[in-house]
Known about the structure:
Elements: E1 7-13, E2 16-24, E3 49-50, E4 57-58, E5 65-70, E6 73-77, H1 79-85, E7 92-100, E8 109-117, H2 122-135, E9 137-145, E10 148-157, E11 160-166, H3 187-199, H4 213-226, H5 246-260, H6 263-266, H7 277-284
Parallel strand pairs: 1-7
Antiparallel strand pairs: 1-2, 2-8, 3-4, 5-6, 7-9, 8-11, 9-10, 10-11
Helix pairs in contact: 3-5
Amino acid sequence: xxxxxxxxxxxxxxxxxxxxxxxxxxxxxxxxxxxxxxxxxxxxxxxxxxxxxxxxxxxxxxxxxxxxxxxxxxxxxxxxxxxxxxxxxxxxxxxxxxxxxxxxxxxxxxxxxxxxxxxxxxxxxxxxxxxxxxxxxxxxxxxxxxxxxxxxxxxxxxxxxxxxxxxxxxxxxxxxxxxxxxxxxxxxxxxxxxxxxxxxxxxxxxxxxxxxxxxxxxxxxxxxxxxxxxxxxxxxxxxxxxxxxxxxxxxxxxxxxxxxxxxxxxxxxxxxxxxxxxxxxxxxx
Length: 285
């Protein structure tokens, strides 16, 4: 079944307009969440809002929104005023410049969407995707949606336009703010580190070889609880002797990596997915 469009927009570059449909780039999976229950009755508890001054419960219809401009001082906005502040959703993805894709730092990436051609936009869509592919460039622009204006990057992938929602520059910390010390890199240690990297290197990117083992463990524990079993903590495994010397750590890592060989990367078969407690319940019903 093809994915469902989550919205429509129009790409504008120069005098060319490309009507497109937006699609989520990922498939959301069921979230594992635990609820607060009353210990005596086992019933769900309800969250309430309390006036910090009077300690009285405040109903949602009695609430207003305000901005704290000084300590404990607020300016209040009505619903109409807040609506007037929202960025108008024009549905226009306006490309302002074309940049080299290789020059876009990965830390700017926030969210990813796929774009598909909407009615009447096939030729212009294909033209833009092909031109970006052959020039190695991406379209940088802005897109207004849900009351906000986003910085976006359009790039091609396998004939499909990908829209990356980016952070604005003032949202990111500069790498120079991070303390890294002033230690020197020794040539012998660098050589061993490079050798260790090469031993575990892959020519391609294959994320399908990995899965969320923590989620699997939690689901398995939940299934066991549903079946009436008690959950006990597994004994901690010894991590082995602690190696303080960096050179010794590198040599030991190389030896361990050599012993394992390519065992960890030989099979591309994904482990069988465990059913969620809900699905398991349905099967046993």
